[in-house]
Amino acid sequence: MQLSYMTVDVFTDRRFGGNPLAVVTNAQGLATDEMQSIAGEFNLAETAFVLPPRAPSHTAEVRIFTPRAELPFAGHPNIGTAFVLARLGTIHGRAVGDPLMFEGKAGLVRLELIRDAGAVAGARLSAPQPLARGEDIALDVVATACSIAADDIATVNHRPCIASCGVGFVLAELKSRSSLAAAQPRAEAFAKHLPSDRATGILLYVRDHHDDIDIHARMFAPLYGVPEDPATGSGNCALAGLLASLRPEHDLTLQLRIAQGIEMGRPSLLEAAAEKTGGRITELAIGGRCVAMMHGVLEL
Questions:
Q1: Do 277 and 246 fall into the same domain?
Q2: Which domain range does residue 169 map to?
Q3: What is the Cα 202 distance to its own chain's centre?
Q4: Which residues are catalytic?
């Protein structure tokens, strides 16, 4: 079996930045364990597998794997896959339209293409599920898992908590960029306190309103084979929803420019948005630009 693939850097406008993604464009016929093995071979934060859609009105079914597990939803694989398919022009014998609609484990993901002078430059997605805020997480659990002090964590706006718009993350605000830069994941603490069925990982963030950036973030998910993620679309999408929900306005459009991956040497820019109507979060979106990198064939 020959499988075509492309790699793309997501949430960046330059090569060797952003979050690398592999997209297998003809994954029909692959078993789940084969997809998992291929994702482990690429050893990127995620690998996306494109399958024919179940409903003819949709663009494709997309399955997403980290090196260790399948995810029901993730931001950069959906955005990168939309970019790849739009550049290909056709998939499964049909033209790729705009918007695209992907079938995912967490639900339908709608994507609109970003274009520069007519050329496809990225994509913007709408989250497949509404914001869900879960349990609060103890400060010492977050501190231990991320090798920081409990006093580094800010609680004025919210305590660390699990939030999701398709996949759950612990969201924790820190008081300073220096604390954010010093953080390091401890896999044994994740295994003890935050097993993979409780949360995908921990997203730490600092509010930082300068240089057109609103937030600096880092995300650790060692139990999924991702010690640190250069750009986390799903987690930052949920973060935009959480922050909008905490604002006093009943009606609000919150737009955030989020920098991630700086400490890894993979600078990423994510543009997140949350719509709040009548005191309720009604839409969550995240988008960014992409750069094509490699293409090739896998032999199975």
A1: yes
A2: 132-288
A3: 13
A4: 46
